[in-house]
């Protein structure tokens, strides 16, 4: 929380977006391996969920439109829930292990 306050000046929420090198294949591997984080096309649940904007919220856009917004095949959106920090970190590490195999 202190890091987020310093980096974002108190203007932050519970949605984290990150890019995986390797594009769609990496995103698919991450989603499959992150077994403790349910896939959810809409964010904001009580528990931590993840979404893949290219195939959900922004699927109707052209690749050029998505690219202009910074959305690639490797984009993952994470909605952080009420679980412990250890749970979320462990679940993310599990997903990342699936990407780097």
Fold and architecture overview:
By secondary structure, the protein is α+β, with helices and mostly antiparallel strands. 40% of the residues lie in helices and 13% in strands. It has four helices and three strands. The chain has helices at residues 2-8, 23-33, 63-68, 85-100; strands at residues 15-19, 49-51, 75-79. It has a three-stranded antiparallel beta sheet with strand order 1-3-2. The chain is globular.
Give a brief rundown of this model.
The protein has helices spanning 2-8, 23-33, 63-68, 85-100, and strands spanning 15-19, 49-51, 75-79. The protein has 101 residues and is of the alpha+beta class. Strands 1-3-2 form a 3-stranded antiparallel sheet.
Detail the topology: elements first, then pairings:
Blueprint (H helix, E strand, L loop, with lengths): L1 H7 L6 E5 L3 H11 L15 E3 L11 H6 L6 E5 L5 H16 L1
Antiparallel strand pairs: 1-3, 2-3
Helix pairs in contact: 2-4
Distance between the termini: 30 Å
**DSSP summary: helix tally:** 4
Q: Share of helix among residues?
A: 25-40%
Shape assignment: globular
User: Averaged pLDDT, please?
Assistant: 91
- Got a strand count? 3
Low-pLDDT ranges: none
Q: Characterize the biggest β-sheet.
A: 3 strands, antiparallel
Tell me the β content. Answer: 5-15%
* Coarse structural class: alpha+beta
Question: Keyphrases for this structure?
Answer:
101 residues, alpha+beta, three-stranded antiparallel beta sheet, 4 helices, 13% strand
């Amino acid at each position: 929380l202190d890091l987020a306050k310093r980096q974002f000046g108190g203007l932050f929420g519970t949605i984290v977006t990150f890019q995986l090198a390797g594009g769609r294949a990496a995103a698919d591997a991450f989603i499959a391996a992150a077994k403790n984080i349910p896939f959810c096309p809409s964010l904001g649940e009580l528990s931590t969920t993840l979404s893949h904007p290219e195939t959900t919220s922004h699927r109707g856009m052209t690749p050029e439109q998505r690219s202009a917004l910074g959305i690639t095949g490797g984009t993952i959106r994470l909605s952080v829930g009420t679980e412990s920090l250890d749970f979320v970190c462990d679940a993310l590490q599990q997903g990342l292990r699936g990407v780097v195999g």
